[in-house]
Amino acid sequence: STHSLLFTEDVFSLPFGFALFVLMVSNWCLALSLWDNLSGGSPGNPLNVPVNVAHQVRVAQHLSVLIALWMEEEIPTATYLLRMIPRSSVEKMGLSYEKFVFSAIARLLVGSVFLLNVFLAVIQSDRVLDMFYDMVSVLYFISHE
Predict the structure, then answer these.
(1) Nearest-CA neighbor of 107 among 34, 30, 40, 50?
(2) What is the rounded average pLDDT for all residues in the chain?
(3) With a threshold of 0.70, does the pTM exceed it?
């Protein structure tokens, strides 16, 4: 994971710069996707949720939320790392605990924005296949991190 480069490498090194670049690109893509998902609403329907969709779409929407929760690994990983690895262990390896926390918070942010994007893509879908394409495209943003 490029997140590990954020705390194992020197701030002015090429690997750290690469990890920061990947993190920034992923966050920009997720932010643009979020902006696009939030821009199509109206005053009475701010999230642009379609009405009267077919039964199979509703079933797929519920399953998609479960699939997204199972596939998202950034939030549990970051939470686990922050909870289980104490400052003394990180510093004993000669690493910066502040950079370690920054890396974990970056994971939490990416995972949270990913889930928000998936939720919006799912509730705004009116066709099953389009919904899964939207989920896969949002997953693509974080899979390269």
Answers:
(1) 30
(2) 90
(3) yes
